[in-house]
């Protein structure tokens, strides 16, 4: 009986960690739509909060106190990489996750994370992710850049009664980067992300509707100190044409992003069947200025607008301990960028994704847990640059299967193993047809009087179809939760 | 903590929501423009006013080059048709430098001769996709006389901030001999009324005839007239300025290099103890006839023989008065690159350095680049 109680508590806590983690910090890039983490992690069932990110639905999705500390190290060898990407990457991060029920009405949760990121042998790029933006900054030198900074998240959920819920969630992150050779580019990124949500739940708790508004604000500042002639600063307009910045002692770039995101959710439970619908619509705008700090020139305006709509069916077996899940997500967004000086379009991009996924989550007994998942997505992209005509069209399919197994070796010792295999076509700047992805991982967790101590390890490998070189990623994590 | 949280009432939450809506209300997204870049057409009509024929002639088969600083590699060239028209199609939307540097055949009745022609202008597009503009050709520049022909300021490629091989080249584009006697060469601040550095040629201003410059002759003024190439860089980069015609020497600076084989321009500013050094990527230079030596109140307008403003930054706000120079040259000059700034043709002067000068990859001491 004691064992069952411990394991039930354990399942709930893992669930909480999962919920907070996947919808946690938006990193230093405020994405318009969060990643589909729910299809990549299979150690738990999906929930309203994990799908929607609506802070008002946090209390509905779980109701447990938690504290977790984790230290993670990641090393990536990019033997195969793009022109402006680093050859090696290292990351060390420390994270503290807490969730506390204050009383019958109030729940708070917070995440504090500190990241130390190293991009080694970074060729020409002054950006952390050169290909993540259309108007990236580069120079002509190769160096190492170190990024570091904290990210904070705070969530507060308040229920008037068991029917009406309100929630507010705030993300705030600051990151500083410095390149170790001239131009010795200094980067300061700051982001703010605030969500305010509301939810209504029926008396029998079988129906929930919710909605939230999310405001995004991100500022990126780059200061590149040019010393010699071999450190020429450039601003790219897309990926094929650039503007040489005027030579001066220091070049500045600012990229200010603002955005808004509206979301609605509907949840219905009928016997063992759960239905979750979620819709998001939003846009972001970026204003990019380059030049000297005293006389900046507005070089580009970029806007992204789109929606993401998903429907998930969860069929619970065995009193909810096992389940079958099926999901469909439709995502569409359009980008356009203009030269603000002449009011002309310089870049357009359209992407549409249809994603189908299904998961089987089994708890055959109280000692073992098993899940398997499959995902297939159809992606359609049309990208155009107009300054120097460039067009890219792609209609391709990505897929991935994933499995995870957990077992209690003793009453206090749990061992897990997971693996995945998939094939996906990367961004066209990789100039390959597809990557094969393999990842395997294993972890062991032991219960001590002071909490659960866990060591996790993971290895990922991405192999391009055209090259013998590959990308290897090693990750090790030590965590303690109470 | 619990007490604080409990004080967050429903009313406060509603107030927070209203605040958020206000913030969101401040956001504004734009409508997508209707014009695509890379689709601009420009038509240039090339004209030449031939004084000797007292007629305007359209020019055919004249090569016209345009380029922009806005994007790397966006340079285009084409030739005029029989009506003197050249069309550039589907080019990026940007400001363009338009250049013509060629020669034409002129029929004088009894004989046919070739005549060098030069033209330059800045084309700035308006909102229409198809625009027509004219380019007026000049013969060797409109104004004749003693000109500042080349400015080498940025220093050779090096990593120890060496720029002491700066020099300036004068050119006599007139058909008569000019004299340097008593002339002054000045570095200016933002106005003709503010002299930063002033050095003077020997001799008596206006009337002296000891230091002639023949028509078509180049004169090189070196900051330090020694072989920078061998002395500093072991023969690899920089230039030999022992061939200079003049050397700036500040007699108040006992450490200043003085080549005994090269005559000197000397500093006349009281209390100035430095050599004639100018900004690597931005500055204003004036050659004046020396009739006004009271530098404290600036230079008289009438004494200015030629003036050039340069800046590597395209967004530079002009300093010197427009009667000296209506523009500025040197956009794109890189410090410590060995680049130089020279007139497009010897003495080519429209009083607008934006179109008169071009950046050349290496200095040309005492001669004109190809």
What's the gist of this structure?
With 482 residues, chain A is mostly beta strands. Chain A has helices spanning 2-22, 48-52, 58-61; strands at residues 66-78, 88-101, 106-125, 137-159, 164-179, 183-201, 207-225, 234-236, 242-244, 250-270, 273-291, 296-317, 322-339, 344-365, 368-385, 390-410, 413-424, 435-448, 451-464, 471-481. With 370 residues, chain B is mainly beta.
What's the helical proportion of residues of chain B?
A: under 10%
**Oligomer category:** heterodimer
Please tally the helical runs of chain B, counting DSSP H or I stretches of 4 or more residues. 4
Radius of gyration of chain A: 23 Å
Total E-strand runs of chain A: 20
* Overall morphology of chain A: globular
**Radius of gyration of chain B, rounded?**
27 Å
What structural class should be given to the helix and strand makeup of chain A? mainly beta
Structural class of chain B: mainly beta
> Helices and strands of chain B, in N-to-C order?
HHEEEEEEEEEEEEEEEEHEEEEEHE
Mean pLDDT of chain B: 85
Low-confidence stretches of chain B: 1-5
Count up the helices of chain A. Answer: 3
Largest β sheet strand count, sense and barrel closure of chain A: 18 strands, antiparallel, barrel
Count interface residues per chain for the largest interface: A-B, 51 and 50 residues
List keywords for this structure.
heterodimer, A: about 475 residues, mainly beta, 18-stranded antiparallel barrel, 3 helices, about 5% helix, globular, B: about 375 residues, eleven-stranded mixed beta sheet, four-stranded mixed beta sheet, about 10% helix, disordered N terminus
């Amino acid at each position: 009986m004691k064992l069952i109680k411990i394991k039930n508590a354990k399942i709930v806590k893992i669930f909480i960690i999962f919920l907070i983690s996947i919808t946690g910090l938006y990193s230093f890039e405020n994405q318009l739509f969060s990643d589909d983490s729910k299809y990549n992690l299979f150690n738990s069932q999906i929930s309203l909060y994990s799908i929607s990110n609506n802070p008002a639905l946090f209390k509905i999705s779980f109701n447990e106190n938690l504290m977790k500390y984790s230290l993670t190290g990641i090393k990536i060898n990019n033997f195969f990489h793009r022109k402006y990407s680093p050859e090696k990457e290292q990351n060390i991060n420390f994270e503290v996750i807490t969730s506390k029920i204050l009383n019958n009405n109030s729940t708070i949760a917070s995440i504090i994370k500190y990241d130390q990121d190293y991009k080694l042998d970074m060729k020409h790029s002054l950006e952390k992710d050169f290909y993540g933006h259309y108007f990236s900054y580069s120079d002509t030198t190769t160096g190492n850049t170190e990024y570091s900074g904290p990210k904070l998240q705070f969530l507060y959920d308040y229920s008037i009664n068991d029917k009406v819920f309100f929630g507010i969630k705030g993300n705030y992150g600051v990151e500083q980067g410095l390149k170790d050779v001239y131009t010795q580019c200094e980067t300061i990124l700051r982001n703010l992300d605030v969500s305010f949500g509301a939810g209504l739940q029926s008396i029998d708790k079988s129906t929930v509707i919710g909605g939230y508004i999310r405001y995004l604000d991100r500022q990126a500042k780059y200061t590149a100190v040019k010393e010699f002639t071999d450190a020429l600063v450039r601003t790219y307009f897309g990926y094929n044409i650039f503007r040489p910045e005027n030579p001066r002692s220091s070049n500045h770039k600012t990229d200010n992003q603002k955005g808004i995101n509206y979301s609605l959710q509907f949840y219905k439970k009928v016997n063992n069947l759960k239905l979750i619908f979620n819709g998001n619509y939003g846009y972001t705008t970026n204003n990019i200025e380059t030049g000297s700090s005293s006389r900046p020139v507005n070089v580009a305006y970029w806007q992204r607008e789109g929606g993401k709509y998903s429907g998930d069916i969860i069929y619970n077996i065995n009193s909810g301990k096992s389940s079958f899940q099926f999901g469909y997500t439709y995502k569409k967004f359009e980008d356009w960028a203009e030269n603000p000086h002449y009011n002309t379009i310089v870049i357009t991009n359209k992407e549409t994704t249809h994603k189908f996924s299904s998961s089987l989550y089994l708890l055959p007994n109280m000692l073992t847990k098993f899940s398997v998942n499959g995902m297939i997505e159809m992606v359609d992209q049309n990208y155009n640059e107009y300054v120097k005509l460039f067009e890219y069209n792609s209609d391709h399919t990505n897929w991935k299967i994933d499995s995870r197994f957990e077992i209690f070796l003793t009453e206090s010792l749990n061992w897990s193993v997971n693996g995945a295999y998939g094939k996906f076509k990367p961004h066209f700047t990789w100039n390959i047809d597809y990557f094969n992805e393999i990842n395997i991982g294993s972890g062991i967790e032991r219960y001590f009087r002071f909490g659960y101590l866990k060591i996790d390890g993971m290895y990922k490998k991405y192999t391009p179809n055209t090259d013998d070189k590959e990308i290897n990623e090693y990750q090790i994590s030590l965590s303690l939760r109470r | 903590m619990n007490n604080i949280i409990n004080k967050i009432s429903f009313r406060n939450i509603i107030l927070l929501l209203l605040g958020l809506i206000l913030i969101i209300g401040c956001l504004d997204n734009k409508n997508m423009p209707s014009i695509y870049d890379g689709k601009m057409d420009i038509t240039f009509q090339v004209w030449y006013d031939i004084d000797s024929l007292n007629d305007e002639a359209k020019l055919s088969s004249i090569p016209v080059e345009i380029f922009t600083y806005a994007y790397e590699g966006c340079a285009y060239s084409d030739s005029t048709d029989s009506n003197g028209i050249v069309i550039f199609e589907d080019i990026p939307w940007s400001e363009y430098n338009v250049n013509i540097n060629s020669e034409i055949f002129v029929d004088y009745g009894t004989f046919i001769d070739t005549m060098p022609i030069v033209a330059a202008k800045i084309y700035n597009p308006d909102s229409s996709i198809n625009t027509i503009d004219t380019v007026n050709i000049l013969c060797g520049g409109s104004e004749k006389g003693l000109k500042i022909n080349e400015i080498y300021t940025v220093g050779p490629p090096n990593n120890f901030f060496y720029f002491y091989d700066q020099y300036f080249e004068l050119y006599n584009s007139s058909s008569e001999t000019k004299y340097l006697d008593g002339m002054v060469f000045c570095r200016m601040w933002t106005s003709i009324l503010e002299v930063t550095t002033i050095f003077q040629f020997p001799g008596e201003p206006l009337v002296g005839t000891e230091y002639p410059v023949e028509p078509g002759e180049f004169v090189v003024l070196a900051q330090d007239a020694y072989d920078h190439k061998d002395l500093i860089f072991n023969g690899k980069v920089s230039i030999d300025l022992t061939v200079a015609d003049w050397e700036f020497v500040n007699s108040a600076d006992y450490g200043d290099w003085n080549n005994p084989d090269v005559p000197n321009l000397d500093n006349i500013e009281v209390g100035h103890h430095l050599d004639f050094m100018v900004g690597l990527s931005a500055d204003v230079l004036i050659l004046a006839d020396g009739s006004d030596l009271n530098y404290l109140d600036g230079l008289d307008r009438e004494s200015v023989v030629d003036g050039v403003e340069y800046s590597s930054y395209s967004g530079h706000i002009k300093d010197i008065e427009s009667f000296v120079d209506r523009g500025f040259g040197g956009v794109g000059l890189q410090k410590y690159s060995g680049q130089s700034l020279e007139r497009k043709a010897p003495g080519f002067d429209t009083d607008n350095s934006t179109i008169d000068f071009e950046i050349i990859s290496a200095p040309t001491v005492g001669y004109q680049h190809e």
